[in-house]
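ingest -> validate -> predict -> emit
validate: passed (alphabet ok, no gaps, 305 aa)
predict: started
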Amino acid sequence: MGMLIDGRWQEDADRTMQNGAYRREASALPSRLGQEVLAALAQTPERFVLVASSSCPWSHGAMLAWQLKGFADRMPLQMAGGPRVEGYAILPRGPLSVDFRHIHQLYAATDKVYTGRATVPVLWDAHERIVLSNSSDDIMQAFDAAGTEPRLFPTELAEEMAAFLPRLFNGLSNAVYRAGKAQRQDEYEHATASVYATLHALEERLSNQTYLFGEAITAADLRLFATLVRYDTVYATHFRCTRYRLTDFPALWRFTRRIFQIPGIAQTVDFDEIRRGYYLNDGSHNPFGLVADQPEIDWLDRSGL
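emit:
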């Protein structure tokens, strides 16, 4: 997987696997999203660049907020992807592609002795030439504070969302990774049990309401959408969460289609890049580099919406 150690890229370094189990490492990069930055985001969003990958669900969460909060026409987007040689590559035709080739170079430019993974999303300050944050949650909250309606982190739901989002992460969004990368049967079974239990709980929750916290969309819905939109394409197949498909859950399927059909959201979903990003960058589980077919799913179906 590779990581930076003291500001230098080490291709074979990897601290995510521990005794056959996948453990996502917390970022060591501090967030620089203070009030001055939030004011600049609102007034001069063109100063910043959102760096994201189509395959990554945490990138997708930031892209969804960037789209819904009115930044898509005002803040440049730099895509990252392709073969993971030195981690994520900076793809051509973006605002950072002239000066940088790899995401890890953004981290090293910010901290010359940085040690850790070089992940996406990244919010880049083009004036100061530093990474302001690599936390999807922090970037989404910054976009929410500086952007237009809808309010994705409503104050009245702050306590409930603060309790819910870690459960969503542990029970589903990260659990699918634990299942897909497990090197022990017991770890795989523990992870998939968490995935299936969470799916059933979410199905019940959404059976009688439009969104997770009622009738208005929030950041929690975007987080869930970013996982569910990938479920049948890669998690139920490549990550071996095979017991169910998304379409086996009527309420979850309706919820995911509803968000997919919000104007601007479909443009943030690239199923080809999602499949390539997972299948072609997992040599230990897919040594021949085969990319599975995209399931036949009608994302524009309006039934029940």
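The two ends are 41 Å apart (CA to CA).
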